[in-house]
Amino acid sequence: MELLYKTLFEIRLMHEFFQTKEDGTNLFNEPDQGNRMNLLQQLDDADYDAIDSDIRFDFPDALKEQYSGYGLHIVPAYSGCKVAVRVNKLTLPDNSIVYQPLNSIPGTLDIFVLFIRKNNQPDAYSNERIGRPVPATYFFSSENIPGTRVFPFLTNAISSFDSGLTYEHGELAIDSSNKLQEYFYDNAGNLQSRPVTFAITAFANENDRMLAPLSFYYSVINKNPVTQLDISLTDAASNVVKSFSFSQTEPIKKVMLDFSDQSDALQLSAALSLPAGLFILQANGNSGYADTRQLIFDERLDPRDCWGVAYFRPAVTNTAFNLIETDGYIMKRVDPLGNITEAPIFEIPVRSRFGNFRYANSNGKELKLNAALNNFLYKEDKLLISQLPVSLCQHYFQVMENGGANTTKFLPNPKTFNIKKDDKQRMYFDVVVPESDLFPVV
After folding, report:
1. Parallel, antiparallel, or unpaired for β 254-258 and 215-219?
2. 290 DSSP β-pair partners
3. Which of 55, 131, 315, 369 is 20 to 30 Å from the Cα of 401, by its Cα?
4. How many CA atoms lie within 13 A of 425 on its CB side?
């Protein structure tokens, strides 16, 4: 029998760092998926790097044999991967061509794809929190876990701005006008915001960090000291699985939470699947501290160097994310007129790291601020620092003017992405420059 594989679905992990062109345009400015995929193909044809240079895609080792039995196979692709399935090709009475999985795939089959780091670069150039209460891994899903999915994006909605929270430089939130904003700290250490004007805004965010280990340190991130803390983990039926209580005279920075004695009740398995396998971690303390996290536990899905996990089922709540039609054939097919319906393409847009550039003279001398850069850089001691933060890009960096005119300049770029944080909460990258007309010394 002929071995015939067809694409069941595709995953595109689209990163601003790689998919921004020299003229400043990127895929996020395009609202139509077909056009985005055409632009992605153009970048591939032009030999632009993509996230697959730093991340590989694979099935969990513990599930490979099971998936092989269903004829599933991962195929590397530019900026992502394809999941193919072994099929039989059928021509229907109306001359349409369809593809039937060789081995019937149940609608409840859990399909997990791991995003595994090849190196540590993705954490350096991705816009993600450095400090977070729970060291959870990204968990992307075609099912509504926990929030409603909007095709073709596998991400959860970004939270509304909360004045009681401590935001990091570059963090995203929805403002009171329901607009997406990126938040940053100015030269006085005050939190500021800037609108995100891309056509698509379904970016990977902290609400997608749900896959947690069975034991971990919980970190308290609060503006005021917390000395009393109560933490409980409840299941989907609001039953308390385990609780903890902490009290001390010194501020609580972090505490150990160990759920390994509850592993049978917590981990995903044939007896516990999603969304029932979604647990709620609730932390409450003095000084007005309150924090809620939705967590998933499964040691099969969290190997060393796992950057994220994507979860699929053949049939889900939003039928636009289904992998198999109600007639039992996969989505890819050819109608009687020869028109091809391709397999679904699911997207995960990721923003770049957001930081200021800090310039220092290569000989340790004090830099003088060139008048032409008055609206682009601040003078701070012997150094110059960009007035506004910059989104990193592999191909170029433009420093924006702090005047609302969206004027930009090409200035020297950092050679490494070693992130530093100052006492004003800014994250920045150091750039060493020689004495020049653009960067004179005192």
Report:
1. antiparallel
2. 284
3. 131
4. 18
The tokens describing 27, both together, are: 């895929």
Looking at residue 226, its amino acid is: V
CA dihedral defined by 322, 328, 329, 331, rounded to 10 degrees? -20
Arithmetic mean of pLDDT, 254-273: 95
Rounded to the nearest 5°, which phi and psi values hold at 52? -70, -10
Contact yes or no for 302/211 (Cβ under 8 A): yes
DSSP state of 16: T
pLDDT of residue 399: 84
**Rounded to an integer, what is the distance from CA 374 to the centroid of its chain?**
35
Asked whether the CA dihedral 200, 350, 37, 115 is positive or negative, the reply is: negative
Q: What is the pLDDT of residue 403?
A: 67
Q: How far apart are CA 206 and CA 129, in angstroms?
A: 8
Average model confidence (pLDDT) across the chain: 93
- CA angle, 348 then 350 then 356, to 5°: 175
Taking CB atoms within 8 Å and a gap of at least 24, the contacts of 67-71 are 67/111, 69/103, 70/101, 70/103, 70/105, 70/109, 71/5, 71/101, 71/102, 71/103
* Averaged pLDDT for residues 258-276: 94
**Spatial separation of the C-alpha atoms in residues 164 and 61, rounded to whole Å:** 42
Tokens 């550039």 map to which residue?
357
Q: Domain ranges for the chain, please list them.
A: 5-157+305-350, 214-296, 354-433
How far is 235 from 278, CA to CA, in rounded Å? 7
Q: How far, in Å, CA of 97 to CA of 168, rounded?
A: 52
**How much is the average pLDDT of 255-261?**
97
Dihedral sign (CA 187, 193, 198, 204)? positive
Q: Are strands 390-391 and 354-361 parallel, antiparallel or unpaired?
A: antiparallel
CB-based contacts of 63, cutoff 8 Å, min separation 6: 112, 300
For residue 54, give both structure tokens. 């730093």
Q: Give the torsion through C-alpha atoms of 257, 284, 147, 299, to 10 deg.
A: 0
Give the residue-averaged pLDDT of 210-239: 96
The strand pairing partners of 346, in sequence order, are 11
Burial category of 361 from C-beta neighbours within 10 Å (exposed 0-12, middle 13-18, buried 19 and up): buried
Q: Which CATH number fits domain 214-296: 1.10.287, 1.10.10, 2.60.40, 3.40.50?
A: 2.60.40
Strand, coil or helix: what is 418?
Answer: coil
Confidence of residue 237 (pLDDT cuts 50, 70, 90): very high
